[in-house]
Amino acid sequence: MRRRLAAGERIVLATHNKGKVREVGALVAPFGIAVVSAGELGLPEPAETETTFIGNAKIKALAAATATGMPALSDDSGFSVGSLDGAPGVYTADWAMQPDGTRDYAAAMRKVMDAAQDFEDRTAWFTCALVLAWPDGHVEGFEGKAMGHWVWPPRGENGFGYDPMFLPDNKPQTFGEMTADQKHRISHRALAFAQLAAACLHRP
Ligand code: IMP
Prior knowledge:
The chain is α/β, with parallel strands linked by helices. Helix content is about 30%, strand content about 20%. It is built from 6 helices and 6 strands, in the order E-H-E-H-H-E-H-E-E-E-H-H. A 6-stranded mixed sheet has the order 2-1-3-4-5-6. The mean pLDDT is about 95. Bound molecules: inosinic acid. Inosinic acid binds next to strand 3.
């Protein structure tokens, strides 16, 4: 049985990534749901040990719901390249990891370009899994994909992560060149969220 969030309910955004907090927070805001992030609450980041986006999103949402006693919404997402059989995929954040433990996305984009440049096929896509979990273990999961191509050099300063090297299908601008509103109309996160909203949220 589907479970819905009540209007006015408070949820935890189960992420420490500021770009995701900003984007998921903006998607949830019109539904009158108050959000607090796992980062703000100082919750630990659980290990992402699954091999699918939905699997890792479940781990994060259940950990935050159990720790706080509130419903939790997680985002697990990544960038995939067709000629690399979908890599970096669920390992997208790992490709940005530096020896000192920080993440460098300019270096990560260059790594992807280096791995993919010998192939003619430049197909790429973003995937986003959103999972809503309750403290009793109930979960609802949704996935969205934005299809396009990778470009080099990266273009634009907006968004976050791999946005500057992703040109969505039928658009002249990369995600990094788009405004937040333009990205939200077509992004993997917005597509997953539209399904979640239809199934689990009440229109105010
Ligand atoms: P996660 O925390 O394991 O889900 O990591 C997601 C990775 O994918 C991070 O490296 C993000 O920078 C990247 N990513 C996810 N969504 C987006 C997006 O909308 N734009 C750019 N990069 C993204």
